[in-house]
Design goal:
Layout: E1 10-13, E2 18-27, E3 36-42, E4 45-52, E5 59-64, H1 74-85, E6 91-97, H2 104-120, E7 126-131, H3 133-144, E8 148-154, E9 172-177, H4 185-194, E10 199-204, H5 215-232
Parallel strand pairs: 5-6, 5-7, 7-8, 8-9, 9-10
Antiparallel strand pairs: 1-2, 2-3, 3-4, 4-6
Helix pairs in contact: 1-5, 2-3
C-alpha cells in the first residue's frame, strides 16, 4: 500500500451540526478497482470514501447508500459507472461509506464533510445522491449545506425526509420503483408532495427496491439530470 498523502484540513459548520476534517489519507479504493481510496479523518471519527477525480473538475457529486452503508449503490452498481462516466463532463464524484450506518444525523454529517472536501478540491457546487435510507440523508444534508445544487433520492424512506419542503430553490429528483416491497413507491410520492418546485418524480413500473430492473433507464436519467442541474444553477 502506498504511503498516505495529506491535504490541508477543512471545517464544516451549520447551526445544528459541526464536523471538522483534520487530515485526508489516500490509498487504493476500499472496494472494487476504480477510483482512489480516501480516509477523511475528522473530529468525529474517520470516514471511508472513494474519489473519482475528474480532470479540471468544476462540479462534484456525492453518492451514499442505504442503512447498511457501503459503496456500491442500487442498479447493479450504478454509482461506480456514473462516477466514472461523469468525469468526462468535468464532474468529480465521492462515494462515501457512513461512520455510523443507520444513524441519520451522523450520516448527514458525513455527507457534509464530503461536500467540504470537494470544495477544497474546487469541485463545487455539489449534487447529492442517496438510496433508500440515504435518500433521507441527502435531503437533510442538502437543506443544511449552502453549496448543494440539487438532491436525488432513489427509492427513499419518508423517515427523516420531511425536510424536503425546505430544499427549494434546490431541485429535487425522486425516483421509485412501483414494485418496491421494502419501501412502497408511495413513500417517494409523499416526499415529492412535501417538496416545493423545482421537483421531479420518476416512477418505474416493474422496478423493486434496488432498482436493478430499471438500471439502464436510471443511468440515462441521471447522466442527463446531473449536468443539466449544474447548468440550471448557473455554473458551466
Amino acid at each position: 500500500m502506498p504511503e498516505p498523502s495529506h491535504h490541508e484540513p477543512s471545517h464544516t459548520h451549520t447551526q445544528a451540526f459541526s464536523i471538522g476534517i483534520h487530515d485526508v489519507r489516500t490509498g487504493p479504493p476500499h472496494e472494487g478497482a476504480q477510483g482512489e481510496g480516501l480516509l477523511l479523518c475528522t473530529d468525529r471519527g474517520d470516514i471511508q470514501a472513494i474519489l473519482h477525480q475528474a480532470p479540471e473538475a468544476q462540479h462534484g457529486v456525492i453518492w451514499v447508500c442505504g442503512a447498511r452503508g457501503g459503496f456500491g449503490g442500487p442498479g447493479h452498481g450504478i454509482y461506480t459507472r456514473l462516477a466514472e462516466g461523469l468525469r468526462r463532463d468535468r464532474i468529480s464524484s465521492l462515494r462515501i461509506n457512513y461512520r455510523h450506518p443507520n444513524v441519520l444525523p451522523e450520516c448527514a454529517l458525513d455527507v457534509m464533510a464530503g461536500v467540504t472536501y470537494l470544495q477544497h478540491c474546487h469541485a463545487q457546487p455539489v449534487i447529492l445522491v442517496g438510496h433508500s435510507f440515504g435518500g433521507a440523508v441527502v435531503i437533510a444534508a442538502g437543506v443544511l449545506h449552502d453549496r448543494v445544487a440539487g438532491v436525488v433520492a432513489l427509492a427513499p424512506q419518508t423517515y427523516g425526509a420531511h425536510l424536503a419542503g425546505q430544499l427549494a430553490p434546490r431541485p429535487l429528483l425522486v425516483v421509485h420503483g412501483k414494485a418496491d416491497t421494502r419501501l412502497p413507491y408511495t413513500c417517494g410520492v409523499q416526499i415529492y408532495d412535501w417538496a416545493q418546485e423545482p421537483k421531479q418524480l420518476v416512477l418505474y413500473e416493474d422496478a423493486e427496491h434496488r432498482l436493478d430492473e430499471c438500471a439502464t433507464a436510471l443511468e440515462q436519467l441521471l447522466t442527463q439530470w446531473i449536468p443539466a442541474t449544474f447548468r440550471s444553477a448557473g455554473t458551466p
